[in-house]
Structure formats: C-alpha cells, structure tokens
Amino acid sequence: MSPLLFPETSPLSAETHRADLRPEHIKDAVIRLAGNSQDGIQTAGALLARLAGRSAQDVMTYMTIPSTISGGPSIFQVRVGSGEVLSAGDEADFLVAFYQHSYQDHVDFLRDGGVLLFDSDHVQPNLQDKRFIHVGVPITGLTVEALGGTAKDKGKNIFVLGLLASIFHLDAEKLKALIRERFGGKDESIVNTALIAFQAGYGFPVSDLLSRRYEFEPNLHAREQAQLTMDGNQALAYGLIAAGVRYGAGYPITPWSSVMEILRSELPKYNGMFVQAEDELAAVSLALGFSFAGHLAVTGSAGPGISLKTEAIGWASMAEMPLIVVNVQRGGPSTGLPTNVEQSDLYQAVFGAHGDSPRVVLAASTVEDCFYIALEAARIALKYSTPVFILSDSSLATRIEAFDEPDLQKIMRNPALDLTARPAEYKPYPLDGITRHAPPGSRMLGGKYPVVTGLEHDEWGHPTANPKLHAAMTAKRRQKLRLLAEDIPLPPIHGDAEGDTLMIGWGSTYGPIREAVVKAREMGHRASALHLRHLHPLPGGLNQIFAHFKRIIVVEMNDIGLFGYGQMATILRARFCNPAITSFTKTDGLTFRVREIIEGVFP
Amino acid sequence: MNPVDFPSVSSAEPQRLTKKSISADHPTWCPACGDFAVLACFYKILEKRQLQHENIVTLAGIGCSSRFPYFVNSHGAHFIHGRAVPFASGVSLSRPDTHVFLFGGDGDGFSIGGNHLEHGARKNIRLTYVIMDNFVYGLTKKQTSPTSPIGYRSKTDPTGVIDQPVNPIKKVIAAGATFVARTHATQVAHMMQIMERAMDHDGFSVVECLSECVEFFPGAFDAGNPRKGGRFQTIDEKKWDGTPEDDARHDTTDEVAAYRLADMEFPGLFGVFFEIDRPTKNAMEKKWIDDQRAKNFGLTDREVLQKTFNRMK
C-alpha cells in the first residue's frame, strides 16, 4: 500500500510536493465536474461550495441533472472567487472528466490553458491537443484501492474532492468537518469511508503533474457577516418561514418539489403544517382553505401544475384572498424540458386567468433573493389581500450560492390570527378600501357573518349580477394593484443613468447581465442594466429611465413569439408604447453565458 | 390547543343561537326543492346544539345545493366546483377550534370532485360532508349526473342514460371514510338524527341525502317516500345485546356487510352503513407538530430558524 494514500502518517505531505512549484494566485476559478448522476458529483460540488461560503469566498454553482430516475450524464460546476461572483462562468478553468463521454461532451467548455483532470482508468484524451494541461489520475483504481473491495468505486467523488483540495490549497480540515456534517447521522462507517476517500485524494501527489501551484487570493471584500450556503429552493422555503408562512400545500413536480419537502419537514417545528395533496387542484384549494382560516399560506409548482391551479387562483382574485403561489419555472410547454431552465411562464403568471383577475407577480434574481422575495410576497399578499406569484426557475432552484446571513431579529415576521370581534359596520368587500377578511372564530358584533365567495358580490359578500356593482368591484380589485405600484421602489440602474443601451432583465439572468454590462463597458459600449423584481404591477417611473437610452433590450430566456419580442419585452412595449424596447432571447434550455449576451446585444 | 394561538375574541356575551340568528338570505332554490328541508334540519341542529356562533363554518363548492352558505348566517365560503373538500380540509386542519360543515351535490362530490372526496376520506379529515344527491345537474338545467340512473332522459342523454351510475355509499366506504350514512330529505326526523351523528363523529363523515329536484327530476325519490307510496326502510343496527334477533342486525364496523347493504336495489336502505374509529389526519398532524415542538421546547420561531441557519454556515 502506498504511503501516499495516508498523508497524515506519511512523511510525504501535499505541501512537500508543491514546494517547488511556481505559485499562481487566482481570483476566480470555474471547476466543472462531469460524470454520471449516480457518482455523487453533486455532493462533492456542494461541499466545495459550502467550503467557499465558510471561507468568505464568493461562490456560485450550476448543475444539470438528467430527468431520468438514475444514471445519465450530469455535471456540477462550481465557481469560486475572491471577488463578486455573478454567474456560474462561461468557460471552465478546470474540467474533471470521469468518463470518456464526459471528456468528449465538455472538453470544448474548457478554456485554452485550462486543466483537464481525467480519470485515466476511463478516459483516453487526445494528448496532442496542446490547448490544455492534461492531468491523468487513476481515480477509480485509487478509490477502490483506498476503500477496499466492497464499496467498489463509490467514493470517487470524495476522492476527487481531496484532489481538488490539494490542487487549490483548500482548507482540508474545514472540508473534513463538512464531510462529517454531510455524512454524519448515518452509519459511522460511512463517515469513515468518506474521510478515507478524501485523504486518498488529498494525499495523491497530483502537484507532480502540475506546473503551477494554485492558490486563491485572500478575499479583500471579505464580509464580517457569516455566510449561509444553500440552493434557491432552500432559500425560498426558509424565506417563506421567515415571512410568517406556516401553512401550505403542494404536489410533487420538478423543480419545485424540494421547496415542498423542506416545508413539510420544517413547518411542524413552527406549529404549522404542509400538506401533500392528491393533485395540484387540491393543493391550491387546501392553501386557500388555510388562507380563509386566517393564515398566510403558500402553494407552488412548475408551469404545468400552475395551469391546473389557475381556476382556484381566479377564485383568490375574486374572493380577494391572500395567497403566495410559487412557480419554479422549467422549459415548456407541457412536460417540456423538466430539468432545464426557461423563463416562459411570465405570461401565465401575469395573464393566465379567466376573467379580469389581477394578481401580483414577483421574480427572484439570485439565491439570496429567493429568501427575501418571500418576505416581499408576504408583505404584499397581506397588505393588498391578493394572490402573489413568485417566479423562480430551475437554475435558481438547483444552484448553490453563499450569501450574508439574514438578520432574523430584524426581518422575522411572526404570524398571528386576527380573531378580534368585528364591529357592526364591518364589510368584507368595502368599495372604498382594501378587503380585510374576518376569519372563522371572529365574532361579528353586528350579528351578520361574512361569506367569502367566487361569485360577484356586493360589499357584504352577497352574490349579485348588478351591472354597476360588477364594474365597481372589478375596478376595486384592479385599483389596489395600482396602489401597490406606487408602493414599489424603482430598481437601481447598474451603470450610468443614460447611455446607448439599457439591458433589462428579470429573474435568474441577474448575474450574467451584470457581468455583460461590465464587459460591454470595457469594450467601449455605453451600456447599463436594470433588473426588475416586481413584474406585475411594474414600479412607476420606468418610462423616465427608458427615456435616457437609445435602445432598451430585454434579455430573457423565452421565445419571441408571433409579435417578435420576448414575454417581458412584449409587456413593456404594451405598457409604454416605446418602440426602442426590443429583446434578445434564447430557448435552448440553458442559462445565459456572458459572451452570448454580449454577442446578442452588441452584434 | 394553545390558547395563545386562538385568543379569546370579545368580552361581549355570545348570543343564544336561534333560527333567526343563524338564517341569512332567503334561499334561491325552486319552490318545493328538497334542499329546503336539509337547510331547515341544519338550522334545527345548530339551535339544538348551541355551538359557538363564530366557530361554525359552512362551506360549499358549486351547484344548486352549494348555495347553502349564503342561507346560513355563519362564517362561510362558496368555493369552486368540485374542490370544496380540500378547501374544507385546509380549514379543518388549521383551525381545530372550528366546526366545519360542507354541503354539496352529486356532480360536485362524485364527478368533478370525485378524486378529492376519495382523498379527503382516505386522510380521514375531521369534517361533516352532506351530499345532497338529486341524480341530476340542476343549476345547469338537466344534464346527466354521476348518479343519474340508467334510462333517465337528460339533455345530454336524450334517449336515456347509458353509463353505469356511481354507487355513492360504496365509493366513499372504499375510499376510507369513517362515517357513511344515507338519508332522505322528506324524512326529517331521520335526517336530523343522521346529521347529528355525523357531526359528532371524529373523522371524515359523509351523509348522502336524497334531495329531489322538482324541476328536472320530479318524483325521483318517491320510491323511498311512504307518503308517495314508497317504502322508507332503515338499517337495523346491532345493539350488541346478545339476543338472537341481534344476529340479523347490521354491524356498522363490518365493511363487507356495508357493501352488501349498499348494493340493494333502489331505493335501498337508509341509515348508518359504516362507522369506525380511525385516527384523523388532524390528530396525527398535531402529534407530529407536538413532537417537533417538544424537541425545540422553549425556543421562539426565530430561534428555531437560527438553529437551522447555524447548520448552513
């Protein structure tokens, strides 16, 4: 047995191997792990991301998962940086290829001069390709050797993690602590196996095969605040809890399911409940039952499930019931691309309804924003007694970021049932005010109890088809969203307040668009960007901003449709009648690369 | 229940429930509709039982009978077609201090809402569901319903219904309902007795109440009405008195016997077909909550979330 595998007991530490190397200080590295989904590369990547979060590095991840149950090619990409990391990276600095197909499919993603780290037991790269530094390590064989026969090659993900820790001079002790946390609680032998695999990778003299010693620059912008590392669905779920949501219902669908799973397990700790319903229609109906009962409730899904919930959301508009509806978007229509990203449910969120049924639509821009958008959705749903959509998407749902720990002392909202007795003059649907429901359990001092209804109604909730009342009530439901529009801040402009090109984004395109602005300005373009968080209603004052730019280009991941513009661009054109508004869109089911935006917006 | 979660509402003394205090709008039903009797029966029960007024919740989906909440002066909601069971489940599960009554028709319950009925029953959610079955779609004017008998001429089956109707009692027992009974809107004393038992049942209680649509299916239930020459035959429930005649009586916990009774030819039997004790979802969810709360005893919500965040650093 080679002593290399156990560096703690070996005189040969990773350090000694690296001593002669030329140090290369790096600010930012994109590491792509390419293998099969059962290899646990997500686990290894997530551990790297959490380490970065703990080390006050910025981090962003990107992954693809096949929509098959088990197996199939899969990648996990981690971008770690000492500055602000805004996107998962256009090209990789390091590619770890577990199989020949991983090598073939992803080698073109590696930048010139990048490092190809491959499992020499499975991959035969073209060594004549001088663009890359080839580093072959018998990953499978060494893992099996380190762990003994029974585990087979399970554990090679953690072996690779050890290799990367050695290459990048990462804090091995912190990583081992993370491994213990990740695998702790299970059989003790699993933790031990993982640690052995890690040590085997960490101790491998990989630096013998490298010409440089890679080391992250210390983060000059290191924040004092602790960082939390999680994915977008986790951030959304915990954001909902912080926002005071204690009840909800859902039905499984990718990529929404993990929000539901977290809430199902977590809400009982907060004296709440999340119900897995028999279908999407029941899920939204249960959630509305919770709302009617006086709670702030949530339901969610992806596009196809939201379609099924649409009728009940119409009831929520008519009955003026607070409700949070999460749509973690994926490629559509129909079953579409269940594990790919698209922003094609905007029309559905804004217009997907029968009748004139106003609702509010928000979109989260980053993993961190998934947390805070839930608070904003709760604020609006309660203040305006209305359904509120939160649009996320599969890229936000699955990617991991580190962000400043929220100050719960400041933001946590504790829910309370309002069962105070309602005065005699109480009306559930006052024409001159915003609806405030009196939930069951509230005594009505006037003796008349309210019925909450989906029929058109008068101020007391009595059904009526009176022509004047329908017009007045329709206006009441619309008017409160106009009030909301005045209550929303204008988003800040990234770049100058005037120029040639204003790029507009919404949702998960935040990072790449911001990077594109920086690149475009370096290239000499007078470019700025603005990212919308409140999509419907829009904040007031956008047209004044637009007036200072020659071109307003909405960058979004959906189709230009029959009118020739993306979904947000079409809404903005309809709203402002401004022909300077156009769009740059794509529908390949993948997140935007910075380069793609530059090429699309500045052809 | 935690008193902090459900604060007392007012120092004003609650008024005694009277027919006047619990009735609301005049029903929009056709004169002589069977549903009037069901409503009158519900008033009587509320008056008799003197529930806390503000804790009574009357819910419905869509249909003639689903107009019910407008006619009862209680907290109420008129929801969408077929989805009243999950809506009512949300109220029941999150508000143990309320009495949840759900009213609806055969189309709402057995057709568009058939799946929800089954899952509400399976989960044994604590609520009382009275299905006013008239064998026809009334509000939309005479289309075939899931309980329309074969041969009935509707606007959608002008030459007579050809599809096998649902057997409501078998359907809900098979789904897992823990209280299943059948009554007839013309038999007021029986209806009252059955609805009271349903209300007292701790679980998902379903009452199928034959309620005639005088407009589109007049005479549909005459065969079960002695005043129209029919026969109102009730289920003779076991008294467990050890007498030889008790052997012949129905054991309401015997599922197979219940199916057999439910299979009898129209107008069939009336009474309680099935009644068992099975833990409600309400109770099991509460147990889970209590267990989780015990693990975090003394912590505020913020501290619980902070604990989770500390693991994500």
Which characteristics define this entry?
heterodimer; A: 603 residues; alpha/beta; Pyruvate-ferredoxin Oxidoreductase, domain 3; Rossmann fold; 4 domains; seven-stranded mixed beta sheet; six-stranded mixed beta sheet; 20 helices; 23 strands; 22% strand; globular; disordered N terminus; B: 313 residues; eight-stranded mixed beta sheet; two-stranded antiparallel sheet; 11 helices; 34% helix; 16% strand
Account of the protein in words:
The complex is a heterodimer of chains A (603) and B (313). Chain A is 36% helix and 22% strand. Chain A has a 7-stranded mixed β-sheet with strand order 11-10-12-13-15-14-21, sandwiched between helices. By secondary structure, chain A is an alpha/beta fold. Chain B has 313 residues and is an alpha/beta fold. Chain B folds into 2 domains: 19-278, Thiamin diphosphate (ThDP)-binding fold, Pyr/PP domains (Rossmann fold, 3-Layer(aba) Sandwich); 281-313, no CATH class. An 8-stranded mixed β-sheet of chain B has the order 2-1-3-4-8-7-10-9, sandwiched between helices. Chain B has a two-stranded antiparallel ribbon with strand order 5-6. The chains are: A alpha/beta (603), B alpha/beta (313). Chains A and B meet through strand 9, helix 8, helix 10, helix 11 and strand 17 of A and strand 2, helix 4, helix 6, helix 10 and helix 11 of B. Strand 17 (451-453) of chain A pairs parallel with strand 2 (75-78) of chain B.
Q: Layout of helices and strands, plus pairs?
A:
The complex is a heterodimer of chains A (603) and B (313).
Chain A: H1 14-18, E1 22-26, E2 28-36, H2 41-54, E3 58-64, E4 73-81, E5 92-97, H3 100-106, E6 110-119, E7 133-137, H4 139-147, H5 156-167, H6 172-183, H7 188-203, E8 212-216, E9 227-231, H8 232-242, E10 247-250, H9 257-266, E11 273-276, H10 280-292, E12 297-301, H11 303-319, E13 323-329, H12 346-351, E14 360-363, H13 367-384, E15 387-393, H14 394-398, E16 400-404, H15 408-411, E17 451-453, H16 467-486, E18 493-494, E19 499-506, H17 510-522, E20 527-532, E21 534-536, H18 542-546, E22 549-556, H19 567-576, E23 581-585, H20 594-601
Parallel strand pairs in A: 1-8, 2-5, 5-6, 6-7, 10-11, 10-12, 12-13, 13-15, 14-15, 19-20, 19-22, 22-23
Antiparallel strand pairs in A: 2-4, 3-4, 9-16, 14-21, 18-20
Helix pairs in contact in A: 2-5, 2-6, 4-7, 5-7, 6-7, 8-9, 8-13, 10-11, 17-20
Chain B: H1 19-22, H2 35-49, E1 56-60, H3 68-71, E2 75-78, H4 84-94, E3 99-105, H5 106-112, H6 114-123, E4 127-133, E5 136-137, E6 143-144, H7 168-175, E7 179-184, H8 188-200, E8 204-210, E9 233-234, H9 255-262, E10 269-275, H10 281-295, H11 301-310
Parallel strand pairs in B: 1-2, 1-3, 3-4, 4-8, 7-8, 9-10
Antiparallel strand pairs in B: 5-6, 7-10
